[in-house]
Amino acid sequence: MSSIINILPEHLANKIAAGEVVQRPESVVKELLENSIDAGATSISITIKNAGKLLIQLIDNGNGMSAEDAVKSFYRHATSKISTYEDLEHIRTLGFRGEALASIAAVAQVELKTRREEDVVGSLLRIEGSEVKEQSNVAHQRGTTISVKNLFYNTPARRQFLKSNNTEFKHIYDTIQRLALSKPEIALEFSSDDDVILALPSQKLEERLKSLFGDRHFATLIPLQEHTDLLSISGFIGKPDFARKSKVDQYIFLNNRFIINRSINHAVFSGYEHLVEKGNFPFFLLFIEVDP
What we know:
The protein has 2 domains: 10-200, 2-Layer Sandwich (Heat Shock Protein 90); 220-289, Ribosomal Protein S5, domain 2, CATH 3.30.230.10. 29% of the residues lie in helices and 28% in strands. It has helices at residues 10-21, 25-38, 67-72, 100-106, 156-160, 165-182, 205-213, 215-218, 262-272, and strands spanning 43-49, 55-60, 109-115, 122-128, 131-138, 143-149, 187-192, 195-200, 221-227, 232-238, 250-254, 257-259, 284-289. It has an 8-stranded mixed sheet. It has a 5-stranded mixed sheet with strand order 9-10-13-11-12. β9 (221-227) and β10 form a beta hairpin. It is globular, with a radius of gyration of 21 Å. The mean pLDDT is 88.
């Protein structure tokens, strides 16, 4: 009796896996930003066109990669973050699974340029639908430039499910804003369709808040800081009189990773008790540090 179980070819397996990692242009931006941060970048530039559907380009001044590592980075489960099971207990990087670049390259046309400080020349890699189209040397500054073009070009059904450009842009902006808050020491530039949206130098958190929300909003914030044996909490909360009708300005970072936690949100809101009118929500920015 013939077997009915098939081993999927790698390019098809990558497309399926991409559905879990790459859901929209914002997913690509998030994964690339986290890679840049983990690579030690102090300056990051993000450019998008057509809300990321046509182009997402990220340029950083991080550590860069060798030619060999540039190729390996697009393999599934290829990562520089962990090598043993024990490493899972001490993760301090934003990424560690080794799926992001493989998933992105499965559903887009990707060009990577990278160079380490010690290398004379950089490496160029072009991949389309998981297939390497070009690998060569290239002149490049230290760091990495990655361009992701025509997202979902080979999976048109998924492309049709993308939302309007305004909606997709908002998702991308929110992700970049969160990173800007969690890493104020990193200089960030964000451009969309040739318009500069953000141009943030390396700053202290207070200055970054003023840059993103304005001096008047910053004047309504109260700093907080608390340390215990279990965790540390720092950040800012808004004065009750300046609460808003939506929850958009509520940010929680656990070990510098943005999270959504209803229990923490409720605990903060409960602290305001009757100080905030029903239907209004206070601003808060919380950094929670715990031993991973």
